[in-house]
Amino acid sequence: KCIRKETKDLKDKLRSATIRSDKTREKELQTSISSLDQFASEMVRNKDKTLDLSLAMVVSHFEFKEMQYIKKKFTDELRRIG
Q1: To 10 degrees, what angle do helices 23-47 and 2-19 make?
Q2: Nearest to residue 59, comparing CAs of 68, 51, 46?
Q3: Residue 21: strand, helix, or coil
């Protein structure tokens, strides 16, 4: 999140430098943005341990309301753990 915020701030400064026609500052900001983007992609590539997982569960119960309660409790727990 911090990297995204910093990139956004740099892009705002780049727009401002472009409007003022400050070529030196513009080039400096483009280099910083490019470097930050490269750093972010390397971090994702090296640190990302996310698994793409699909889960199919069947919830059944004799009473419909009880089944709805179990289903909601189960999905809430899955969301809580990520």
Answers
A1: 160
A2: 68
A3: coil
Angle, alpha carbons 41-53-68 (nearest 5°): 130
Write out pLDDT tens, residues 27-50.
888 998 898 888 888 877 777 666
d(CA 46, CA 74): 32
- CA atoms 65, 71, 72, 74: torsion sign: positive
Spell out where the chain has E strands.
none
Domain ranges of the chain: 2-47, 51-82
pTM above 0.85, yes or no: no
